[in-house]
TrEMBL record:
<keyword id="KW-0472">Membrane</keyword>
<feature type="transmembrane region" description="Helical">
    <location>
        <begin position="46"/>
        <end position="71"/>
    </location>
</feature>
<dbReference type="GO" id="GO:0034204">
    <property type="term" value="P:lipid translocation"/>
</dbReference>
<feature type="transmembrane region" description="Helical">
    <location>
        <begin position="471"/>
        <end position="490"/>
    </location>
</feature>
<feature type="transmembrane region" description="Helical">
    <location>
        <begin position="440"/>
        <end position="459"/>
    </location>
</feature>
<dbReference type="Pfam" id="PF03023">
    <property type="entry name" value="MurJ"/>
</dbReference>
<dbReference type="InterPro" id="IPR051050">
    <property type="entry name" value="Lipid_II_flippase_MurJ/MviN"/>
</dbReference>
<feature type="transmembrane region" description="Helical">
    <location>
        <begin position="92"/>
        <end position="112"/>
    </location>
</feature>
<dbReference type="GO" id="GO:0009252">
    <property type="term" value="P:peptidoglycan biosynthetic process"/>
</dbReference>
<feature type="transmembrane region" description="Helical">
    <location>
        <begin position="155"/>
        <end position="176"/>
    </location>
</feature>
<feature type="transmembrane region" description="Helical">
    <location>
        <begin position="124"/>
        <end position="143"/>
    </location>
</feature>
<keyword id="KW-1133">Transmembrane helix</keyword>
<feature type="transmembrane region" description="Helical">
    <location>
        <begin position="345"/>
        <end position="366"/>
    </location>
</feature>
<dbReference type="InterPro" id="IPR004268">
    <property type="entry name" value="MurJ"/>
</dbReference>
<feature type="transmembrane region" description="Helical">
    <location>
        <begin position="225"/>
        <end position="249"/>
    </location>
</feature>
<feature type="transmembrane region" description="Helical">
    <location>
        <begin position="269"/>
        <end position="289"/>
    </location>
</feature>
<keyword id="KW-0133">Cell shape</keyword>
């Protein structure tokens, strides 16, 4: 295998990983420019709620049970048997989804009335629902196809699926955004999901996966997958109830509230995905391996170091988002239909949601650790606590601080559910309790807060000059970069060794991807 091919394969997968995030950001920026934080964008988000809820259950089925059963069937029996199993599950899934889609078409007016009492808005939501419903079928097929490709160690095409969908939406907004309005987003989204299905057909055929029209509701493998997926589906159900509650409370507020929360949430998730998820993915296999080998000391060290590293890398980003929130949102979104009022709404939501930049990956990490121990009840209880806390907080806060109440309720619920996971993790792991000492937290939080606050005052001082005002975007980015630089210097001064762990784990994650692609290309 030549070095050029190895690096070429690595570049393709690396590009797919980051391209999705970049295009996703550009899609949100473009949507904001064309539609702003408006009633039209709210209608699209409300219409997309039902497909999102249904697809979370489909994803739960393929997330846990399908890949190990498919591999076992292929190794124990044959590729033909594995293909038959895949075909049966796929066909049953299509039947169920078609029934759900048909029911959604019939009851679309009732669904729309849940989100709005205004007849004109209801009609717009109904039209968007009718356009978006086929995406349920296409996304379901995509989940199934990508699961098979991942089981066969083919990662390149699935890595680009989100990017493909974003490209379709972007193109349709640019071409038809003015003439079709918000409907251009829905049409582009549906066509993007359909194209995702098509691009996975050639690699499936090349890898010997043969589709057969076969439906057997009594198939043992089908029952196994459903049984294995019940805990994940339960978690998904609770999470989707929270998602639905967010949309419902948004309907009680001024138009644009749902859009502002959506934009703020998408930006908050960028550092979570790029850094938090990457670090967890790199650390989790090592922790599971040490646990399987009963090396409790090494296991405790990996878990503790991973948590410290998450705090180390995400805390400064959280403070930057908290303090520079209005300027970040203004740089990203304030153009076209996204006016100063929309910036103010989105920035305040973003500020309250920014706490999740640290809390969300920590919660995901603990949830994964419970899954690795085959303990499912505690993550489920944690999700229930999150949902109940969110509802109660919204009932108290929304009448007082409107859309900010939803954002603050989300962060408070996340914190309380994380504390629950942390306490029960230590209770179940008496020999490997996690202890992150206060001096470490003080050094990280103090360094991040000091560096960001210092650069914020430098920013305010510089903005008094007319020349700098004209170059305010560059100046803002320089001040943000300066705060990160000062933070790194302070971390080095405090001799916090976890910074080396972060760098090595992220580099190792890229190296493993490169190795997988090299093997795949042979």
């Amino acid at each position: 295998m030549s070095t050029n091919k190895i690096f070429s394969g690595a570049f393709i997968l690396f590009l797919g990983y980051f391209l999705s995030s970049i295009l996703g950001l550009f899609r949100e920026v473009l949507s904001a420019a064309y539609y702003g934080a408006s009633a039209d964008m709210d209608s699209y988000l409300f219409a997309n709620t039902l497909p999102s809820i249904i697809l979370s259950f489909v994803g739960g089925i393929f997330m846990v049970g399908f890949i190990p059963l498919f591999i076992k069937k292929k190794v124990t029996y044959s590729s033909k048997e594995a293909s038959l199993m895949f075909s049966n599950i796929l066909n049953v899934l299509m039947v169920v989804m078609l029934v759900l889609i048909a029911a959604a078409y019939v009851f679309s007016h009732y669904i729309a009335s849940f989100f709005s009492i205004n007849s004109e808005t209801q009609l717009q939501i109904v039209r968007l629902i009718w356009i978006l419903l086929p995406s349920i079928l296409f996304f379901g097929l995509t989940f199934a196809q990508s699961s098979v490709l991942n089981a066969l160690n083919h990662f390149a095409v699935p890595a680009f699926l989100t990017a493909i969908n974003n490209v379709f939406v972007i193109v349709f907004i640019l071409l038809f955004g003015r003439s079709l309005g918000i409907y251009s987003v829905a049409i582009g989204f549906v066509l993007g999901t359909a194209f995702q299905v098509l691009v996975m057909l050639p690699p499936l055929k090349k890898l010997g996966v043969v589709y057969t029209f076969r439906i057997n509701f009594k198939d043992k493998d089908l029952h196994k997958i459903i049984a294995m997926s019940v805990p994940i589906i339960s978690l998904g159900l609770i999470d989707q109830c929270g998602f639905l509650a967010t949309r419902y409370f948004s309907t009680l507020l001024t138009p644009g509230s749902a859009s502002a929360l959506n934009y703020a949430g998408k930006i908050m998730l960028l550092p979570v995905t790029l850094f938090g998820t990457a670090l967890i993915s790199a650390s989790y296999p090592s922790a599971v391996l040490m646990q399987a080998e009963n090396k409790l000391k090494e296991y405790k060290q990996i878990v503790s170091t991973s948590l410290k590293s998450l705090l180390l890398i995400l805390t400064p980003i959280m403070f930057i988002c908290l303090i520079f929130a209005p300027y970040i949102i203004r740089i990203l979104f304030e153009r076209g239909s996204f006016d100063r009022s929309a910036t103010t709404m989105t920035a305040s939501c973003f500020m309250f949601l920014s706490v999740g930049i640290v809390l969300s990956p920590l919660k995901d990490f603990f949830t994964k650790m419970f899954f690795s121990k085959e303990i499912l009840r505690i993550p489920i209880y944690s999700s229930i606590i999150y949902f109940m806390t969110f509802i109660i907080s919204c009932l108290i806060l929304v009448p007082i601080i409107k859309y900010n109440g939803i954002a603050l309720a989300s962060s408070l619920s996340l914190l309380i559910s994380l504390v629950y996971l942390f306490i029960h993790y230590n209770a179940l792991n008496s020999e490997s309790k996690i202890r992150i000492n206060l001096p470490y937290i003080a050094k990280v939080v103090g360094s991040a807060a000091s560096a960001t606050t210092l650069c914020y005052f430098i920013y305010l001082d510089g903005m008094q000059y007319e020349l700098i005002k004209k170059l305010w975007i560059i100046y803002t980015l320089l001040c943000i970069g300066m705060s990160l630089g000062i933070y790194l210097v302070m971390i080095k001064m405090f001799r916090i060794e976890e910074i080396n762990y972060v760098i090595s784990k992220l580099l190792n994650k890229f190296t493993r991807r490169r190795g997988r692609l090299a093997n795949e290309s042979q």
